[in-house]
């Protein structure tokens, strides 16, 4: 890799890190590296192995390709409804990524739940970010908290709720019509 490529890589790592509000030490801990190495990498004074780049990308919630691509410098991106990437969801549920990679300050998802569908039988957590659930159409039930202690909230069109992603949560459609929701998470959940 040339000096200019190393410098661009370092600048992109720094940009993603600051976008995520991570410290050099925080990124180093997540990636299994020393803070001095991350600092040198960001200043273009060190290169990184493919394995290290994978760990850094994972910690930043991006792909290794994102660390080298400058395609995301476009001011806006239009994604038609038919072009939304669909994510794995349970039977009768569909989840679509609205925010496009590389994720910056937030991630946004659209979801549809047929009657009886849910995010799964068990509540789940992901990272420790702020999450907002907004019901667009239909009605959903949201459980917040550990099993046996979870608070139950029935939400209709226009209703929203805000919580930490570290709090166990589960969404289900107990109604008779398909429900449509939006989730907004900030900062983005680290890739797993």
TrEMBL record:
- What Pfam families does the annotation carry? Cupin_2, HTH_31
MF terms from GO for this chain are: DNA binding; DNA-binding transcription factor activity
Is Ribonucleoprotein a UniProt keyword of this protein?
no
Key words of the record: DNA-binding
Q: What SUPFAM superfamilies does the record point to?
A: lambda repressor-like DNA-binding domains, RmlC-like cupins
Identify one Gene Ontology CC term for this UniProt entry. cytosol
Q: Where is the HTH cro/C1-type domain?
A: 13-67
**Which InterPro entries does the record match to this protein?**
Cro/C1-type_HTH, Cupin_2, Lambda_DNA-bd_dom_sf, RmlC-like_jellyroll, RmlC_Cupin_sf, TransReg_Diox_bact_type
Protein name (database record): Cupin domain-containing protein
Natural source organism: Nonomuraea rhodomycinica
């Amino acid at each position: 890799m040339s000096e200019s490529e190393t410098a661009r890589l370092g600048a992109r790592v720094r940009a993603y890190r600051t976008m995520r509000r991570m410290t050099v030490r925080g990124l180093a801990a997540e990636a299994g590296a020393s803070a001095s190495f991350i600092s040198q990498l960001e200043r273009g004074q060190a290169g990184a192995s493919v394995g290290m780049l994978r760990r850094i990308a994972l910690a930043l919630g991006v792909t290794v390709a994102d660390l080298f691509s400058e395609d995301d410098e476009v001011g806006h991106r239009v994604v038609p409804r038919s072009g939304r990437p669909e994510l794995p969801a349970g039977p009768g549920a569909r989840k679509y990524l609205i925010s496009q990679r590389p994720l910056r300050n937030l991630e946004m998802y659209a979801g549809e739940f047929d009657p009886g569908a849910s995010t799964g039988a068990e509540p789940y957590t992901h990272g420790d970010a702020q999450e907002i659930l907004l019901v667009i159409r239909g009605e959903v039930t949201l459980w917040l908290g550990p099993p046996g202690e979870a608070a139950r909230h029935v939400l209709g069109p226009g209703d929203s709720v805000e919580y930490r992603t570290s709090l166990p949560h589960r969404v289900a459609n107990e109604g008779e019509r398909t429900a449509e929701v939006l989730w907004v998470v900030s900062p983005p959940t680290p890739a797993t």
